[in-house]
Design a protein that fits this description.
Blueprint: E1 5-7, E2 10-12, E3 19-24, E4 29-35, H1 39-54, H2 62-78, H3 80-91, H4 95-113, E5 131-139, E6 142-146, H5 152-165, E7 169-173, H6 180-192, E8 199-201, H7 206-213, E9 220-224, H8 227-239, E10 244-247, E11 253-256, H9 262-274, E12 286-290, H10 291-307, H11 326-341, E13 345-348, E14 367-370, H12 377-380, E15 387-393, H13 396-404, E16 408-409, E17 413-415, H14 419-428, E18 435-436, E19 451-452, E20 455-456, E21 469-477
Parallel strand pairs: 6-7, 6-9, 7-8, 9-10, 11-12, 11-17, 12-15, 14-15, 17-18
Antiparallel strand pairs: 1-2, 3-4, 5-21, 10-20, 13-14, 16-19
Helix pairs in contact: 1-7, 2-4, 2-6, 3-4, 4-5, 9-10
Keywords: Oxidoreductase
Family: Belongs to the aldehyde dehydrogenase family.
InterPro entries: Ald_DH/histidinol_DH (IPR016161), Ald_DH_C (IPR016163), Ald_DH_CS_CYS (IPR016160), Ald_DH_CS_GLU (IPR029510), Ald_DH_N (IPR016162), Aldehyde_DH_dom (IPR015590)
């Protein structure tokens, strides 16, 4: 079935007639064709967004924007099951995960709807009593929202909710590897009542992405994806002086101290790397364990990894579905092979896949490597798959040093029953998120983002609004007099 883009309130194919396949990674079958937009299509979408912004959306009262966002959330909740099944078919994530993500995406739209009519400026007292000074918080204009293939619904909500709440118009481009739920959002946007051109959706490959990130008509770009692509987008945007929000990769440390509740820590380690098949930027792919409990913890994690049930992601008993697409599958397999050849001890994951029920699925077994050197590729490169590197440490200082010895700084976990240690380590770790005695937890209210090569800027939480707002200062002379025209007035 051929899908259509949304540009200026119209459903349109790619102008050149090109399409790309959407493939079910479990069955290996094509389930749809998505438009492969040309640069001309992208330009049309940006122009439509600009026309809608200048044509009235930028001055739409916040209470009205809030109503529309709440309606969008209502519609997403009503059709959460349909959206979950569509996303599972498109990228292979477990249905139980995509179902929860649909509801969490709706929670994000509601959260930012609450801010839409509360974007206050402030009055600033100056040195001169005869001058009134105040600020206003205003929408930036047209924002490009570019999402990755691993969690399209949630990644879109992270960006679209604050962008619309702040009064901006948008051009959305999902990954060519998972576009279907984003295209389906066009129905909800229209049904919710958003004016034509406020939300535009284009799909396609590298040509469309490059045309969008380099377009001079944008006022902000928000991107989630790989470091190389993020670097290319930042470079293209810099030529037009367009600010960028980047949520990129991670090689997150999940640190287990000897005094922790080890049973909980083991479950947290499994959740950190094997949930969603490790295809998350926050994956706790480096498991740092204190010497005295290292063997016990790593053996327990490996035992649980062996017991993980692979299968059809639509079925409730399944715990690990297929890798989302062929290029990522090949990348994970290379990393596993190189890790096994590089001296690390593979405790599980190298066994051949012989289950006929897995069919044509792109499956990788949950893999645990022990005795990993933090300087090795296993510990330094983002694999983005169900591959865990277990690393020893002796004391708190060494744990922090290993955790921070990475070019990434997105997420981290700390497992300890020592309250003072939890606070100390959380303060010392260089990462945008530190979880203590939990892992892979999210909330609409909690800001999310990274540092170093994990990117910059924040999504979710009140902090996300600043990515889509600009501050205007207004200064009014109340004195009624004129000063020296050749000296600055202060």
């Amino acid at each position: 079935m051929n899908q259509l883009m949304l540009i200026g309130g119209q459903r349109v194919p790619a102008s050149a007639g090109r399409t790309l396949p959407a493939t079910d990674p479990f069955r290996g079958t094509e389930i749809a064709r998505v438009p492969d937009a040309s640069p001309a299509d992208v330009a049309d979408a940006v122009a439509a967004a600009r026309a809608a912004f200048d044509g009235g959306w930028s001055t739409t009262p916040g209470v009205r924007r809030a109503e529309l966002l709440h309606r969008l959330a209502d519609l997403l909740v009503e059709r959460a099951g349909d959206f979950a099944r569509l996303e599972t078919s498109d990228n292979g994530k477990l249905l139980r995960e995509t179902s929860n993500q649909a509801r969490f995406a709706a929670r994000n739209y509601r959260f930012f709807a609450g801010y839409a009519d509360k974007l206050y400026g402030r009055t600033i007292p100056l040195d001169s009593p005869d001058t009134l000074d105040y600020t206003t918080a205003e929408p930036i204009g047209v924002a490009a929202l570019i999402t990755a293939w691993n969690s399209p619904m949630q990644l879109l909500a992270n960006k679209l909710a604050p962008a619309l709440a702040a009064g901006n118009c948008v051009v959305i481009k999902p990954s060519e590897h998972a576009s279907l739920t984003t295209l389906a959002m066009a129905d909800l946007v229209e049904e919710a009542g958003f004016p034509p051109g406020v939300v535009n959706i284009v799909t396609g490959g590298a040509d469309a992405g490059q045309a969008l990130s380099g377009h001079p008509g944008l006022d902000r770009i928000s991107f989630t994806g790989s470091v190389p692509t993020g670097q290319a987008i930042a470079t293209a945007a810099a030529k037009n002086l367009v600010p960028v929000t980047l949520e990129l990769g991670g090689k997150s440390p999940n640190i287990v101290f000897a005094d922790a509740d080890l049973d909980r820590a083991v479950i947290g380690a499994v959740a950190g790397i094997f949930a969603a098949g490790g295809q998350t930027c926050i994956a706790g792919s480096r498991l740092l364990v204190q010497d005295s409990v290292y063997d016990k913890v790593v053996a327990a994690v490996a035992e649980r990894a062996r017991a993980i049930r692979l299968g059809d992601p639509m079925l409730e008993p399944t715990q690990l579905g297929p890798v989302a697409n062929r290029p990522q599958f090949d990348r994970i397999r290379r990393a596993v092979t190189n890790g096994a050849d590089g001296g690390a001890v593979a405790l599980t994951g190298l066994e051949p896949l012989a289950d006929p029920e897995l069919g044509a699925g792109l499956f990788v077994r949950p893999t645990v490597f022990a005795e990993v050197d933090n300087a090795s590729p296993l510990a330094r490169e983002e694999i983005f798959g169900p591959v865990l590197s277990a690393i020893r440490f002796s004391d708190e200082d060494e744990a922090v040093a290993i955790a921070n010895d990475s070019e990434f700084g997105l997420a981290s976990g700390v497992w300890t029953n020592d309250l003072t240690r939890a606070h100390r380590v959380a303060r010392r770790i260089v990462a945008g998120t530190v979880w203590v005695n939990t892992y892979r937890s999210s909330a609409a209210q909690a800001p999310f983002g990274g540092t170093k090569k994990s990117g910059y800027g924040r999504e979710r939480g009140a902090e996300a609004l600043s990515e889509y707002l600009t501050t205007k200062n207004v200064m009014i002379d109340l004195s009624g007099t004129s000063g020296d025209p050749f000296s600055i007035r202060t």
